Amino acid sequence: MDFTKLDGLIPAVVQDETSNEVLMVGFMNDEAWTLTQQTGFVTFFSRTRNKLWMKGETSGNRLAVRQMFVDCDEDTVLIKVRREGDGNVCHTGERSCFYTELAGTK
After folding, report:
1. In angstroms, rounded to a whole number, what is the distance separating the alpha carbons of residues 54 and 70?
2. Cβ pair 43, 36 in contact under 8 A
3. In degrees rounded to 5, what are phi and psi of residue 30?
4. Which of 21, 22, 32, 92 is the 20 to 30 Å CA partner of 100?
5. How far apart are CA 11 and CA 27, in angstroms?
6. Rounded Cα distance, 53 and 43, in Å
7. 42 Ramachandran zone, left/alpha/beta (phi>0; psi -120 to 50)
8. Is 35 helix (H, G, I), strand (E, B) or coil?
9. pLDDT tens, 14-25?
């Protein structure tokens, strides 16, 4: 993976393995990338807290890795997951972080 472009980070797009719904986007540094592969659960790097965090570590809504895909530039990863816990991924309690539709986009 090429961690040189965004100050040592890569975007990680998280998608439900069954529905293909995009659930969220986070960022990973090299350590988060390695931990995700080693543990089988998605781990991110928090830019605001400047630390690693495993999605669902407090809520129980973990994201179990099923498949990982790297884009052609090797600077973005797509992670297909199985949702654990109540299945809501967004910190607001919504199923996906992408629940707000912009007006006039149809």
Report:
1. 20
2. yes
3. -60, -40
4. 32
5. 5
6. 6
7. beta
8. helix
9. 999 999 999 999
- Sorted by where each starts, the structural domains of the chain and their CATH numbers stand as 10-83 (3.10.20.810)
Residue 58 to residue 70: CA distance in whole angstroms: 28
**Interval 102-106 mean pLDDT:** 79
Whole-prediction pTM? 0.92
| Biggest CA-to-CA distance, the chain | 43
Instruction: Give the integer Cα–Cα distance in Å for 93 and 37.
Output: 26
Q: Which tokens sit at 59?
A: 């809520």
DSSP 72-89: TTSS-EEEEEEE-TTS--
